[in-house]
Amino acid sequence: xxxxxxxxxxxxxxSGNLTLVTDPFSKDVGLTPPRVQTDIAVISNVNNPAYNxxxxxxxxxxxxxxxxxxxxxxxxxxxxxxxxxxxxxKTNGFDYTTIYSIRMEDIKIGFLGxxxxxxxxxxxxxxxxxxxxxxxxxxxxxxxSAEQAVTMVNQIEPHIVIPTHFWQKxxxxxxxxxxxxxxxxxxxxxxxxxxxxxxxxxxxKENEIIVLASQR
Length: 216
Description:
6-stranded mixed sheet, Metallo-beta-lactamase, Chain A, 3 helices, alpha/beta
């Protein structure tokens, strides 16, 4: 599995011949939108251009998942789970925010998208199940804060944590810097261009923080 970051909560996750993209953003956020051929896209907020630029997905053949439910596409199983977003924004609320449990290459991914909660509910934790790799927003303001992110990390106890939604040059949305999250969770991590890993490598990792460098 290979994971690269475009910015905000948009990632490309590749496994063999299968590619998944999360939360493709529009130019409105201040970055050049990613344009990538992808088999599957998951969108956490259908009403917000920061997460729902379908024009960048490279064709009509992309299967788009944009809400709660269970999906089995090309051998990749996904579960969309309702979650709370920013109550002050008309484009980001309980009805429009979805977090995802994704099984890919026998690796279990938890993608928390644009969630803004102090902690996960028992129901959400049950639906997420065991998580190998957790993508969690940490920048505060319109998404969960560093402190809230640490709470959710401790609830889930994944092998690997990939923070999202921290301050990024060019982004118009206000976010705290990654250092706030690293200090809160008690870790140091230098940004890397991409993460490449195998299922067999996960057993030796526990709450390992991986900070990816934006490809935008």
